[in-house]
């Protein structure tokens, strides 16, 4: 080894050992749009080892060649990096397919034999990761099959065995705790990767870089200077073909419990002693423990459901007219909530969090709004256009950071107006950001769990969400028109406290 090369240096390409990635649910939406294209992107960047194999599993009577064709089409359609036939020639030649249902013992025995065979044919040395890209109710069945066949057993395999569990991890605290126990019975704690793809986004990781690598922000990152924080995850899309899942979940369980509470934890956490997985989790967990719903959940939260309307000039159906949604569904497609964080740094600072489907456009951002200057030695008319100083981290789609502050308008008057200093990833860096799944799949294969929430974080997040769901039981969501920024109640929520949503 080159003594000048630090093996911990993350700028050096990290390449996994030869291994197999088994994808349960390989014919599904996630595998087709994100996982298979992400794997191609990793291969294209030279980050996969020579002995890498993808094994697909689903209820199809396919052979390896049919699967390879599906994977090729998925990669050609959705990959981030350019198509290179020579890259595919290597990757596509290492695709295996095992057909069967989750209750089919013979199919899992067949999968175990396939993995054993790859030991010699591809030199994977028993290393395999199992990705559960399947409907959440099927997680236990697959975990039990992996236990029954011994496929989850590192010692028996003679290499590492890991499992990736998709979200949502449980439906409430009780079911999440049950699932955690089952996962822990089958795999060792270090081998479990609970995925939250928001943590794989570059801009989300940049929250920590921004906060902890600069001196500029930390002194004002507290209730002395911060007026409020707004987190927005707006989606222009509806529920597509996912009615079965979505109608039983709703916006709070689908994204507030995971993506948005994780973002909140990153914004509010204390500095970790290092960027070690355990240190970061410890700090995030403290925030989640301190996160509190408003005393009166009914007035401090808003839930909405979209009605037919127009998005980007296209007429779109209402939620109740989406295929597979019951005509009397009261599931929310929008939620806004005012959270508090009960600790010294954040006491009294509201964290307004909102998410919705069929909004006017797709945008995820977090904005820290600072208090206004205690005294303004200007004519009131000259500061009419001066708002709160704001730091806005745009997670997507135009990734970047904007700092908004007052500046003098050129001229003889002392007029002060808000202006924005804007950093855009696309302009500042030549490399384009890896897709979240691309990054996270690589981390699983390397065995780096830094960006994966721990069991305690998942359970603690449900402790925040469960009372919300209980309070909403039997209530009807407030309608909003598709293409609008949610129901009126969301504006009223902030207006009652003398605030308004930023224009995202
Ligand atoms: N799609 C997305 O954008 C996102 C999805 N997720 C999560 O990812 C997971 C997968 O989602 P998604 O891809 O949308 O789901 P889909 O419904 O599109 O796909 C489900 C997959 O599971 C397979 N499957 C279902 N039941 C069985 C069974 N009894 N035996 C064998 N295979 C079965 C299906 O295979 P077949 O029917 O061909 O046998 C299919 O490949 C879920 O946990 C979801 O919550 C998370 C974030 C975003
Ligand atoms: O986890 C989920 O995320 C997607 C949004 O992901 P993004 O990376 O496109 O922002 C959301 O549409 C889906 O409902 C949810 O399950």
Give a quick rundown of the structure.
The chain has 504 residues and is α/β, with parallel strands linked by helices. The chain is built from 15 helices and 18 strands.
List keywords for this structure.
carbohydrate metabolism; 504 residues; binds NADPH dihydro-nicotinamide-adenine-dinucleotide phosphate; alpha/beta; 18 strands; G6P_DH_AS; binds ligand LXAUTJHC
What does this structure look like?
It is a single chain. With 504 residues, the chain is α/β, with parallel strands linked by helices. The protein is built from 15 helices and 18 strands. The protein has helices at residues 29-44, 64-78, 85-92, 105-122, 139-148, 154-157, 173-186, 202-213, 243-268, 277-290, 297-300, 425-428, 436-446, 455-472, 488-495; strands at residues 20-24, 53-58, 95-99, 128-132, 161-165, 192-194, 226-234, 291-292, 301-307, 309-311, 314-316, 334-341, 351-356, 363-370, 390-396, 400-408, 416-424, 478-481. Strands 7, 8, 9, 12, 13, 14, 15, 16, 17 and 18 form a ten-stranded mixed beta sheet that branches. A six-stranded parallel beta sheet has the order 3-2-1-4-5-6. Strand 1, helix 1 (29-44) and strand 2 (53-58) form a beta-alpha-beta unit. Helix 1 packs across helix 2, helix 1 (29-44) crosses helix 13 and helix 7 (173-186) packs antiparallel against helix 14. The longest helix is centred in the middle third of the chain and has 26 residues, at 243-268. The radius of gyration is 24 Å and the shape is globular. NADPH dihydro-nicotinamide-adenine-dinucleotide phosphate is lined by residues 25-31, 58-60, 101-102, 133-136, 138, 166-167, 242, 245. The site of the ligand O=C1O[C@H](COP(=O)(O)O)[C@@H](O)[C@H](O)[C@H]1O has 4 residues, from helix 9. Belongs to the glucose-6-phosphate dehydrogenase family. The active site is at 259 (proton acceptor). Catalyzes the oxidation of glucose 6-phosphate to 6-phosphogluconolactone.
């Amino acid at each position: 080894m080159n003594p000048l090369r630090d093996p911990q240096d993350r700028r050096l390409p990290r390449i996994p050992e030869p291994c197999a990635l088994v994808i349960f649910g390989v014919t599904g939406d996630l595998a087709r749009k994100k996982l298979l294209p992400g794997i191609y992107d990793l291969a294209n960047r030279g980050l996969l080892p020579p002995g890498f194999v993808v094994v697909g599993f689903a209820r199809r009577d396919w052979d390896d060649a049919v699967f390879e064709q599906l994977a090729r089409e998925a990669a050609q359609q959705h990959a981030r990096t350019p198509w290179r036939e020579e890259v595919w020639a290597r990757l596509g030649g290492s695709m295996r397919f095992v057909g069967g249902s989750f209750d089919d013992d013979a199919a899992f025995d067949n999968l175990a034999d396939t993995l054993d065979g790859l030991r010699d044919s591809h030199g994977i040395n028993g290393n395999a990761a199992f990705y559960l890209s399947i409907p959440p109710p099927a997680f236990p069945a697959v975990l039990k099959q992996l236990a029954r066949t011994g496929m989850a057993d590192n010692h028996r395999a003679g290499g590492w065995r890991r499992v990736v569990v998709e979200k949502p991890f449980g439906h409430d605290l009780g079911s999440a705790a049950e699932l955690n126990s089952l996962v822990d019975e089958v795999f060792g704690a270090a081998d479990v990767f609970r995925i939250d793809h928001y943590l794989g986004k570059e801009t989300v990781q940049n929250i920590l870089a921004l906060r902890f690598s600069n001196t500029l922000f930390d002194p004002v990152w507290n209730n002395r200077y911060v007026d409020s924080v707004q987190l927005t995850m707006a989606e222009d899309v509806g529920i597509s073909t996912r009615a079965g899942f979505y109608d039983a979940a709703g916006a709070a369980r689908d994204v507030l419990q995971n993506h948005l509470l994780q973002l909140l934890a990153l914004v509010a956490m204390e500095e970790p002693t290092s960027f070690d997985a355990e240190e970061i989790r410890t700090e995030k967990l403290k925030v989640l423990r301190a996160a509190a719903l408003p005393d009166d959940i009914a007035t401090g939260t808003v839930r909405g459901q979209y009605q037919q309307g127009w998005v980007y000039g296209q007429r779109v159906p209402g939620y109740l007219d989406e295929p597979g949604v019951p005509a009397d569904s009261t599931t929310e497609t929008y939620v806004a909530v005012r959270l508090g964080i009960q600790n010294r740094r954040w006491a009294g600072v509201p964290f307004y969090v909102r998410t919705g489907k069929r909004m006017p456009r797709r945008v995820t951002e977090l904005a820290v709004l600072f208090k206004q200057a205690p005294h303004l030695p200007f004519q009131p008319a000259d500061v009419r256009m001066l708002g709160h100083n704001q730091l806005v981290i745009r997670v997507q789609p135009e990734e970047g950071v904007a700092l908004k502050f007052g500046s003098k308008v050129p001229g003889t008057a002392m007029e002060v107006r808000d202006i924005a200093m804007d950093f855009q990833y696309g302009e500042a860096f030549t490399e384009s950001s890896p897709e979240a799944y691309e990054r996270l799949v690589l981390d699983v294969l390397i065995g780096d769990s830094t960006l994966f929430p721990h069991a305690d974080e998942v359970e603690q997040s449900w402790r925040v969400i469960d009372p919300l769901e209980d309070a909403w039981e039997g209530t009807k969501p407030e309608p909003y028109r598709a293409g609008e920024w949610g129901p009126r109640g969301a504006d009223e929520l902030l207006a009652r406290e003398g605030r308004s949503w930023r224009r995202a």
